[in-house]
Design brief:
The protein is mostly helical. The protein has helices at residues 2-5, 8-20, 24-52, 56-63, 71-103, 111-123, 125-145, 148-174, 180-187, 196-210, 216-221, 230-258, 269-279, 284-318, 322-342, 344-374, 376-383, 393-419. Bound molecules: tryptophan. Tryptophan (TRP) binds at residues 4-5, 7-10, 80, 83, 208-209, 211, 214, 216, 302, 305-306.
Length: 425
């Protein structure tokens, strides 16, 4: 579960979205949403999955037969399809940066040089496409062979190592000249910078980062033992996920300010800041190779969870083998991925529409399912199946029955109006 949650969302997307939305005030809202909204949603997805032992579509078909609830699960196939289309490109960039650090192409560059490398990478369709295809090939192979177990085991060892490296890079970053402005940006909230768009983006980012709102975590929940304490699982996943995003922030913003890189410069932020730190670090070149490689692995464990949804959907729908489904889906996401390479507008559209619109809507219906169909006692039973009563059950139930749906709706409508340019407040 942590493998799915921790990925480019933490190290690439979180800093760039936070940077675009003014820093510390965004961070506070993000934390509040994670506690009050995302953890209850995650817990709900787990509980539904464990209750039925099935994926979200089948869960809804089992728990609410002859209704249209399973449509929510169908959205859960479109959404990973759009996410993986742009996600593979970023994984590709990370692969390319691993290669370039090995080859020494990022060494000794000044700030403008580092900027230029990213500009060349993202605008060069050949490079972006080539490395994206490598990313697709790796993910396709793993899912085709159904060996994601192996990957999960490897990442259990490698992810703590990634955290160690992030901490190392953080230390170098905060000791750079001029780093304090970056820390101020991250920790000193300026609420005048908080906009409807920022609040909207914080909700979307929180869902994206925790892989919730489309039922992926339901499938994972199906594998959790009955003896396991679900609330504890949910809180742990959220904490690990948040810690890594938070550390990524401490790693990136002090460096951005020290090198005069604008924090709101968008999707390239990680790629234009990190090489600068590595250039100032003892053994920077070696560290950067390992760092980018570990980031690739974090990205792969997330894209495997996304791709798995597509492959198992296709396999069941068209009754083909896992291998064939995987090959066909690889080709399809290569085509949609290529569209994102060619057009940054499509890239951004997929990135925004999935995180900010589809995941919140998915989460909205998933939590509403509980009071409307399942009812209180049934979910309570599942959450307490390990034999102990859940201390915060009433809080949880209140949150998912009232707070979460109302909050999502408000943030959503407000954000959409802002998006299309209506200023109603
Ligand atoms: N959470 C992952 C990340 O942070 C991305 C991801 C994997 C995801 N599976 C998902 C996002 C399902 C939304 C839904 O990189």
């Amino acid at each position: 579960m942590a493998g799915s949650a921790v990925g480019l969302g933490n190290v690439w997307r979180f800093p760039y979205i936070l940077g675009e939305n003014g820093g510390a005030a965004f961070l506070l809202v993000y934390v509040a949403f994670t506690i009050l909204i995302s953890i209850p949603v995650l817990l709900t997805e787990f509980a539904i999955g464990r209750m039925t032992g099935k994926s979200i579509v089948r869960s809804f078909k089992t728990l609410a037969p002859k209704t249209k609830w399973y449509y929510v699960g169908i959205c859960g196939v479109i959404c990973p399809f759009l996410i993986i289309s742009f996600y593979n490109i970023v994984t590709g960039w990370t692969l390319y940066y691993t290669y370039e650090s090995m080859a020494g192409g990022l060494q000794g560059l000044d700030e403008a040089g580092v900027q230029q490398v990213f500009a060349d990478t993202s605008s060069n369709m050949g490079i972006s496409t080539f490395w994206m295809i490598i990313a697709i090939a790796i993910v396709g192979q793993v899912v085709a062979r159904g060996v994601s177990d192996g990957i999960e085991k490897v990442s259990k060892i490698l992810m703590p190592l990634l955290v160690v490296l992030i901490v190392l890079v953080c230390i170098r970053s905060v000791t750079l000249d001029g780093a304090s402005d970056g820390l101020k940006f991250l920790f000193y909230p300026d609420f005048s910078k908080l906009t409807a768009k920022g609040i909207f983006a914080a909700l979307g980012q929180s869902f994206f980062s925790m892989s919730i709102g489309m039922g992926i975590m339901t499938t994972y929940g199906a594998y959790i033992q009955k003896t396991e304490n679900l609330s504890q699982c949910a809180v742990r996943v959220a904490m690990v996920d948040f810690m890594i995003a938070f550390l990524a922030g401490i790693m990136i913003f002090p460096c951005a300010f020290a090198f005069g890189i604008s924090p709101d410069q968008g999707a390239g932020l990680v790629f234009v800041t990190l090489p600068n730190i590595f250039n100032q670090m003892f053994m920077g070149r070696a560290i950067s190779v390992v760092f980018f490689l570990l980031l690739v692995i974090a990205a792969l464990t997330s894209s495997i969870s996304l791709f798995e949804v597509l492959v198992s959907f296709y396999k069941d729908q068209f009754r083909t083998s896992r291998r064939k489904a995987s090959i066909i889906m690889s080709l399809v996401v290569a085509v949609t991925g290529f569209a994102c390479v060619v057009s940054p507008t499509i890239f951004n559209f997929f990135d925004q529409i999935t995180a900010n619109v589809m995941l919140p809507l998915g989460a909205f219906f998933i939590v509403l399912f509980i009071p409307i169909v399942l009812k209180r006692e049934r979910i309570k039973e599942e959450l307490e199946a390990h034999g102990k009563s859940m201390r915060l059950f009433n809080t949880y139930y209140f949150l998912i029955k009232y707070v979460v749906p109302v909050a999502i709706l408000l943030i959503f409508v407000n954000g959409m109006l802002d998006w299309i340019g209506v200023d109603w407040l």
